[in-house]
Amino acid sequence: MSEFSRILELYEALPVKVKLQSIEIASMRKEIATLSAATQGQAPQQKNQEVA
After folding, report:
1. N- to C-terminal Cα distance for the chain?
2. Three-state DSSP class for 19?
3. Closest listed residue to residue 10, CA positions, set 25, 37, 30, 18
4. Is the pTM for the entire model greater than 0.85?
5. Cα 35 from Cα 32, distance rounded (Å)
6. Three-state SS for 1?
7. pLDDT in tens, 1-52
8. CA neighbours closer than 13 Å in the CB half-sphere of residue 4
9. Within its chain, how far is the Cα of 23 from the centroid?
């Protein structure tokens, strides 16, 4: 395979990789938001348990 062919192959694959990474990042952000909300919801319960 010539260098040009390899470069062309990488160039064509790049947008697909970028799109997949964008999807992964969006998924991670949703997961972080969910975990953050769950953690914030648990914090007052823990304080109430400590008082009791």
Report:
1. 72
2. helix
3. 18
4. no
5. 5
6. coil
7. 799 999 999 999 999 999 999 999 999 999 999 999 999 887 555 555 665 5
8. 0
9. 8
